[in-house]
Specification:
The protein is α+β, with helices and mostly antiparallel strands. It has one domain. It is built from 7 helices and 4 strands. The longest helix has 23 residues.
Length: 164
């Protein structure tokens, strides 16, 4: 047994967490930070559902068929849309645990090509950079933006992505 792997500062035993538990804890940390800023100033920051609090290990679910290493990480629901809904949930009295579940279920990333990025974002094309397709609501297909842009993708486990 490696001392550094099981004991923290001061020789206190450190618990090992499963991937699912770490993901759940990361979502809860994000929820608590969003709540804290929202309570203090009435808003928060979309970066609270990004890397530092919510690493890609938990959020990247796949890549487009056209992705070849060049492109970007695309949130399937724009962070701005997710954060606005979290603020609405806070207004309605949601708990941190409820918000964490919402974050877990709605913050997903698919890596896409630069061409797909332009098709999705540009106003002379779909103009979906920071919004979902017209008529979309929470509870609908979270991959609707990718479907609207005809972006075919493969999940991390190599299977076909869910149809949009």
């Amino acid at each position: 047994m490696d001392y550094a792997d099981t004991f923290g500062a001061g020789g206190v035993m450190r618990r090992e967490y499963s991937f699912e538990e770490r993901h759940e804890r990361a979502c809860l940390r994000a929820a608590m930070n969003i709540r804290g800023l929202w309570e203090e100033k009435g808003s928060s920051d979309t970066r609270l559902i990004e890397g530092l609090l919510l690493p890609d290990d938990f959020t990247v679910v796949g890549h487009s068929r056209a992705f070849s290493g060049q492109g970007r990480r695309e949130h399937v629901i724009p962070r701005l849309v997710v954060i606005k809904e979290v603020h609405d949930m806070l207004e309605r009295g949601a708990t941190d645990a409820q918000i964490a579940i919402f974050i877990r279920d709605h913050v997903k990333i698919v890596r896409i090509s630069n061409e797909e990025c332009s098709r999705l974002d540009r106003k002379d094309q779909l103009g979906l950079r920071q919004r979902m397709p017209t008529g979309w609501a929470f509870g609908d297909d979270i991959y609707a933006r990718l479907s609207a842009a005809n972006i075919e993708w493969v999940s991390m486990n190599g299977s076909e992505a869910p149809p949009g």
